[in-house]
Each structure stands twice: as structure tokens, then as C-alpha cells.
Amino acid sequence: MSANDLPVAVIGAGPIGLAAVAHLVERGVPVTAYEAGQTVGASVRDWAHVRIFTTWEQSVDTASRRLLEATGWSLPDPNALPTGEDIYRHYLKPLSRHQALSLYIRTNAKVVRITRAGADKMSSKGREAKPFELRIENSDGAQQTVLARAVIDASGTWQNQNPLGGSGLDAEGERRFQKRIAYGMPDVLGAQRARYADKRIAVVGAGYSAINVLLDLAQLCKNAAKTKVTWIVRGKNMSKIYGGGENDQLPARGKLGSLLRPLVEQGRINLVRGFHTNAIAESADGLTLKGTVDEGAHEVTGVDEIIACTGQRPDLEMTRELRLELDPWLEGVKALGPLIDPNLHSCGSVPPHGHRELSHPEPGFYTIGVKSYGRAPTFLLLTGYEQARSVVAAIAGDLEAADNVQLKLPETGICETDFVDDGAGCCGGPAPVEADACCVADNVAKLAGKQGCGCGPTA
């Protein structure tokens, strides 16, 4: 059997991975998808309570929609904003059970290593002709080896949360106090309400995930009056952190900062800016976060629980034996790095890109989805769906379709580099109108829900 007779391996069965499977099935290309979780969309289910920025119309892949509609499925309200649970229940679950896809999706199947069959990373002779070799680990720890003609890595980054340490490493004491630290976006109004009600909580992070958690905690405060919230951010530029407001082309995303800002300005949430966490310690009064502000020692004391909304990073160990070309600091695909570097860009836009930008020196290997962005937080589902379409077309040999990339993303309304931390709105526009903080908290669920970005709750 030649390599071309083998199936394409898709790593991850979230929205982007399943989109790749759907496009491959439409083109008649053999495929097997490997999902580490117990169900498809396992990472999406981790933030089931979160409402995303993009509408249903913007959140469903074209090939997946065609397959589903052929069975009588219909898109929910195109203008509604789905939650993670909505996406799983009304889209990913029925898609995974579609007769054209179901036989090609394996759950509880974690890809732990990828290489070339019979060739390590140093071997060059005949490398392109050798199939990929994937080591798959089942839920019971047993492993097996499978072969593939090409690999599409859509495994995401959600399972690799960044630590609290401001230097990118675990803060001293972080592992010791793991039971009092939650990463990502805990369901503070639902399943984990008892954990946070009437507690002193430090939320670390300056992205949309942090803002969502803070807005939820503001809601919690209404019925658990002893709840105290401290918001810790590494930066100082609040105009950038609060976002583009009415200038954001995704209105639900733009609302988040406008809802949070009055809570901070009226003292309902205590803000600590410019804080870089170095260590976590314990005293009779609870946990203490130790760090620096303006290179001087600073502490945040009297904390019961910590929520780390510090973003995610890609798993690079899985692909260590492959010849990949990654951006040196974002760890996403190299071609995208300069276009999405959050040190330089904040508008959330990225030029159209497809199989050529998402490929590597390792022929037949592609990184798509949020993992293609590495540590950058501005990924949207719309991006991943077009990535999947282009890459699949290339694998199928249809280069004309693969190169015809159409991608226009909604911008955040934040200037790229012209930030002025003067309390005004983005780009010199008016500051958001102040509102009563209780009113803001009352309307969080109605106005914005608990929204992450269009792929989920990236920070």
C-alpha cells in the first residue's frame, strides 16, 4: 500500500477538526479523526456556559452545513449567539453522528506522538514518500500505531493553559496551591457557584475570558454579598484591555469592556494594574500573590480562590519528530506570526491565508484552527473553517480551489498600536458612558451573555 492509499489523519474533533473531516468526506478522501476527549467538541464542552461572539450564521462550516441540511437539519436562529453547549448539542453532536462522518471519528484517542514511518527527524532520504506514523493512546493508557498519508493538526490549545507566572513559568507555589486555582473560565454562576460565593477571588488576566469571569462574579455578588473580587492585569493600558466598544464589528464582543468598566470605576471590582506574579504563599488570612509593579515588590493579600485567565499555548511535544516551522515566540505557524503578534496588532484582523501559509517543511503536515495562531488570542471560527477548506482542497489536489482563499474578519475596533491610556475610548473616541454598577450587573446576561471569542473563550 502506498502512502496515497492511506487516510488523512485529523487531530481533534472540535469545530475546526470536524470541518476538515466534512470537507474530506465531500471530496471522497479517506479520513480518520482522533479526539482525545470522551466526545467530539470536548474542549467546547469545558466552556459550555459561555456565549460566543459570533452568530450562528458565522459559526458553522459550509461543508458541515451542507451535509447536515441534506438530512433535514436546519440552522438555529442565524442571528442568535450560541453558547458552547448550544454548539455541541445543536451542531457538533449531530454532525458527528451523520452517517457520512460517524465511522471516521474516534474519541478517547489521544495523539501523543507523530513522526515519519521509519525515519526520525534527522532522516532526509525518501522522507516525502514515507507515510506519517501516529502513536494513539486510548483512555485505558494502551497505545497503538496508525499510518496516514497527511496530517491536519486541529488539536487546539485549550488543554494547555498558561501558568500564572509573569515570566511564562509556574509561579513559585503555583503547583502547591493547585486546588485553589482554576484555569480558563469556571462556571461561577452554575456548577461551581458554591466554590466562589462569598469568597475573596483574584482573577488574573486581561483578555475576554477574564472579562467574562469578572462579569459573572459581578452577578454572583448580588446574591452573595460577601464576595470580593480583585482583577490583576499585567498591562496598564486599559483602553486596549476594555476593547473597541461600539467600534467593534462584533457588537457582543465590543460590549464586554463597556459593561466591565463601570464596575471597576465604581470600586465594585478592585483593579491592580501592571502586576507580574512571581509567587503564591499562604498566611492566616488566605493566599498572597507576590510579584512586582513597575519593578518594585507588590503583594495582593487575603485571597481565597484564584482564577487564571492567562491564555493557552500549543502542545509542541506531540510533533517533536517532525520538521515544523513555527513563529519563534507565538509558536503558531511562522507565516502568520507577524500578522497576528499581539505585541503589534490588536484589531483582530488577519489577511486571507490557506494551505500555503499553514504548511511546514514537513510535506503533508498542516496546522489549522486556534493552534495555527499559537499563543495569540485573536482567533475566530471563521478563520478556521476557511483554513480547513483550503487545506483539504490542497490535499485533494485541487490547487485552484485551495488558493482561492476568501477571508474577511470582523475587526475589534482597537487601533493597532496607537493606544493612549487617558481614560478615553479607543483611538481617541469617547469614553463609554458610565452606568450604575448594579444596573450593569443586572444586564450582563441580557446584553452580552458570557461571551468568549468566535472559537470559544480565548483570553
What do these coordinates show?
The protein is an alpha/beta fold. It folds into two domains: about 5-160 and about 310-405, FAD/NAD(P)-binding domain (3-Layer(bba) Sandwich); about 180-310 and about 425-450, 3-Layer(bba) Sandwich (FAD/NAD(P)-binding domain), CATH 3.50.50.60. About 25% of the residues lie in helices and about 20% in strands. It has helices at about 15-25, 40-45, 60-70, 85-95, 195, 210-225, 240, 250-265, 335-340, 355-360, 380-395, 400-405, 435-445; strands spanning about 10, 30-35, 50, 105, 110-115, 130-140, 145-150, 150-155, 180-185, 200-205, 230, 270, 275-285, 285-295, 295-305, 305-310, 365, 450. Strands 4-2-1-8-17 form a five-stranded parallel beta sheet, with helices on one face. A five-stranded parallel beta sheet has the order 9-16-10-11-12, covered by helices on one side. The radius of gyration is 22 Å and the shape is globular.
Short note summarizing the structure:
This protein is α/β, with parallel strands linked by helices. It folds into 2 domains: 3-159 and 312-403, FAD/NAD(P)-binding domain (3-Layer(bba) Sandwich); 178-310 and 423-452, FAD/NAD(P)-binding domain (3-Layer(bba) Sandwich), CATH 3.50.50.60. 25% of the residues lie in helices and 19% in strands.
